[in-house]
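Slide 14.
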Amino acid sequence: ALYPSSHESATDKEIEELVELRMRRQEELFDRPDPPEMVFVIDEAALQRWVGGRDVMRHQLKRLKTEALRDNVTIDVVPFTAGSHPGLFGGPFVILEFADERDEDILFLENVRGDGGDIFRDEQMEVAPYRETFAQLRDLAHRTDLEAVIERALKEMSESDRSNTVETR
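Slide 15: predicted structure.
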């Protein structure tokens, strides 16, 4: 649901390929025999914005709850009460760290150009500020109850459904 608005010049086939690629990556990470430790930090606004409509968001929220039950997955939420925070400025990013020190850490920055993003391998001047931002975001999110935030979002959707329903006789 997000790709058409962020890749306006992409064809339906190109968007379908992007979605398939992302889904394959998720399967390879989550469903492999030895999945990595994964820590995600999400702004509460992302859980409230109805990208793709109610049904899509309900599915996404329920999936977050399910994935958070995995031993190797941590999902933190930066609450609205945090106000302005460092995650609002630079956009989404991923830091990949490896147990073997010989493997380079990788910083991946998504962008709107549609070229896959920017990748920085073991470049401390590039990676360090994002590590600091990630630590700050985790600190802001550490007291937020993911399940409670998701249940509140689902409840608000249900209440909106009821208020938008018109009885006919």
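Speaker note: The CA atoms of residues 157 and 163 lie 10 Å apart.
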